[in-house]
Design brief:
Helices cover about 45% and strands about 15% of the residues. It has 15 helices and 9 strands. The N and C termini lie far apart (about 55 Å).
Length: about 375
């Protein structure tokens, strides 16, 4: 255990959880903890079963019988992942903002972070036990749920569009830079080794991203800015009795609201459903943003921004396009569906033309 923070799930034991849960569930004593499922993605994830010294007291306080836990990875990626600050941002979101937003997000039981080391511990609502549905990639969010979520996002975006509000309520929500070369390396590897699985548009947009990163990032940041989720693709969404919820707040940042909107539409819906409803959903969002006192956007301007934001789906696929041989069947299914959504939206929205119109044509 480092600086009092568990670094493995073995260290996330009964005494530590008893102390950590005291802030939200005072008086609850954890008697035993069992890891009932675990897997490693960007970070280490596990489902926990908790047993209490007084089960009735724990239940009345709202303490969970099962929970989802997230820690930093323990493999060679650890230092790089901690350096991104994703864990700290997500812990801060759950600790300071989650309860004040009219969005469906997992209930946080423990949300701790360490500024010095970047270490973090999250113990959140177990969505499986709550009866929520998380897609395996083969099905997308339904139109009605997306429409309602866009109205909820509009209210959040409007609230934090004022820099003074962000400074007062969420000073840790910052503008993120272009990042390092990790995504470029992965994209180039994917193109070199798996070109036959990638469309021409994907390869060309990847070329723009790799060669003119700073210019493309500046284009993505153009226009009004607010606090955004930053990563609402299908793997970070869930349905709770028809209501769309948002997982994984590690990339919460100050950016264009059209990043959230566009990414939800292109990477959170089935392709055919998006094609049929995309324009109407964007109109709904623009109207809702204005109604909540946020920035006023014309549909034409929002649509133009949406087409540019769609280019972000390419670097978002940087790990997918390596097609790792050791991936599980579930991971393979999800990754292929993820890439298919990306490649479809690049063609549908004529993203290359949108970039070229702003001086970012691919190299000849």
């Amino acid at each position: 255990m480092e600086r009092g923070y568990p670094t493995t799930f073995d260290e996330l034991d009964a005494p530590w959880l008893t102390a950590a849960l005291a802030g939200r569930h005072p008086g609850v004593v954890v008697q035993a903890v069992e890891v009932i499922d675990r897997h490693d993605l960007t970070n280490a994830h596990a489902r926990l079963a908790l047993r209490y010294a007084d089960a009735e007291a724990a239940r009345s306080s709202g303490a969970p019988d099962t929970a989802f836990a997230k820690l930093a990875p323990t493999d060679e990626r650890r230092s790089a992942i901690l350096a991104t600050g994703m864990g700290q941002r997500e812990a801060l979101f759950y600790a300071t903002l989650a309860s004040s937003l009219d969005l469906r997000v997992p209930v946080p039981h423990v949300a701790r972070h360490d500024d010095e080391t970047g270490l973090f511990v999250l113990v959140l609502e177990d969505l499986v036990a709550a009866g929520c549905a998380v897609s395996d990639g083969t099905w997308g969010m339904p139109v009605d749920a997306v429409a309602a979520a866009l109205e909820e996002l509009a209210a959040v975006h409007a609230r934090f569009a004022d820099p003074a509000v962000r400074a007062a309520e969420a000073p840790w929500v910052a503008v993120l830079g272009p990042g390092g070369d990790y995504g470029k390396v992965m994209l180039r590897y994917g193109i070199e080794h798996h070109r036959d699985r990638l469309t021409d548009a994907f390869v060309d947009v990847a070329g723009v991203y790799c060669e003119r990163t700073a210019e493309l990032h500046a284009l993505w940041q153009a226009g009004p800015r607010t606090m955004i989720h930053g990563d609402p693709h299908l793997g970070n969404l869930f349905l709770d009795d028809g209501r769309l919820g948002f997982l994984d707040w590690g990339i919460v940042n100050a950016g264009s609201p059209l990043r959230d909107v566009g990414y939800l539409l292109t990477m959170g819906m089935d392709v055919e459903a998006r094609r049929a409803a995309e324009a109407d959903l964007l109109r709904l969002y623009v109207a809702a943003l204005a109604a909540h006192g946020g920035p006023t956007l014309s549909f034409d301007d929002a649509w133009a921004m949406h087409r540019v934001q769609a280019a972000y789906t390419v670097p978002a696929c940087c790990q997918v396009v390596t097609f790792p041989e050791g991936a599980s069947e579930a991971r393979r299914v999800f990754s292929e569906a993820f890439l298919a959504r990306c490649q479809a939206c690049l063609d549908d929205l004529e993203v290359l033309d949108a970039l070229a119109a702003r001086g970012l044509a691919p190299a000849a």
